[in-house]
């Protein structure tokens, strides 16, 4: 059977091969599949994430360049956004625009069942993220395996003219 081009642009969530991840002693844990790469997306990144009860998939963070959207597919949890929180459930669509600490966001599975969601983001060639809980800043650039990735503490500022 010949695979049609249109068939390479569609995938069902049930057919995804999820990759498990865990960090910080299991505080951050989940399963994920990068759908955008799988389907050949060029300008948008999208993934499917499943988070077990009591877990969080990523640190509380904001973006300087990339906008994100989340669609809750299954379950319930809590959205942290800026200084506020609210319950979210299957069917909710969440907007996380570019900004500073006021747009920092995180999905927490504080329920007794799986929380599953689709993430969509603009794929910018350069990005800076702030992490208010840990007071870190991350700078990212390029799309190659050797892309720039640098994390530093927010209070570790260096003067622009230092060592010039």
TrEMBL record:
Family annotation (InterPro entries): Cupin_2, GPI/OXD, RmlC-like_jellyroll, RmlC_Cupin_sf
UniProt xrefs under Gene3D superfamilies: Jelly Rolls
CDD domains in the cross-refs: cupin_SPO2919-like (cd02224)
Organism: Usitatibacter palustris
Annotated Cupin type-2 domain residues: 50-120
Keywords annotated in UniProt: Metal-binding
Pfam families in UniProt: Cupin_2
Protein name: Cupin type-2 domain-containing protein
Phylogenetic placement of the source organism: Bacteria, Pseudomonadati, Pseudomonadota, Betaproteobacteria, Nitrosomonadales
Molecular function terms from GO: metal ion binding
Domain of life, per lineage: Bacteria
